[in-house]
Design goal:
Layout lengths: L25 H15 L2 H20 L12 H63 L3 H22 L1
């Protein structure tokens, strides 16, 4: 006899519900935005962008009229650069926010480590002070020699008096 499968039991994972909302991984998007922001801050990007703009202007200025796609005021180029800037700014801000979060976490960890180091230093300072105090009470070799010499002298004097 076949065992009946109960899909509502905890032994089986629930199927994901289908939704029309787009889903995305915020961490993956954040990592991508950081890479993009890092690329925007490089000399390579400036060289590529400068080359692209120069090519665009030269092509649309010197090419035959039937091959030009953006005439003199270069409205389409302006639109593309504005679009690039409108996307770059929020992505750079997102990358900066992620960096600020990492810096805040690192700062908290540094502060906790500093507090532990301070507590350890205070403990070692107290231990060192107690060792110095204990060493001050320890009999030194010279003191012991002088006490033994004094005791021997007393014994010799007592023996001399008795004889």
């Amino acid at each position: 006899m076949a065992k009946k499968i109960n899909k509502n039991s905890l032994e089986y994972p629930r199927e994901a519900r289908r939704t029309l909302k787009p889903s995305y991984d915020p961490e993956a998007f954040g990592r991508w935005s950081e890479r993009f922001a890092r690329f925007l801050g490089t000399a390579r990007f400036l060289v590529f962008m400068t080359g692209f703009v120069i090519f665009w202007i030269v092509w649309n200025s010197l090419a035959p009229n039937d091959l030009k796609f953006d005439h003199y005021p270069f409205i389409f180029l302006t639109l593309l650069l504005s679009l690039q800037a409108s996307y770059a700014a929020p992505l750079i801000l997102l990358a900066q926010n992620r960096q600020a979060d990492r810096d805040r976490i690192q700062g908290n960890e540094d502060r906790e480590r500093d507090e532990r180091n301070m507590a350890d230093t205070e403990y070692l300072t107290r231990e060192l002070a107690s060792l110095r105090s204990a060493i001050g009470e320890v009999t030194t070799r010279d003191y012991l020699h002088s006490e033994i010499a004094d005791a021997i002298e007393e014994i010799v004097k007592k023996l001399n008096k008795k004889s």
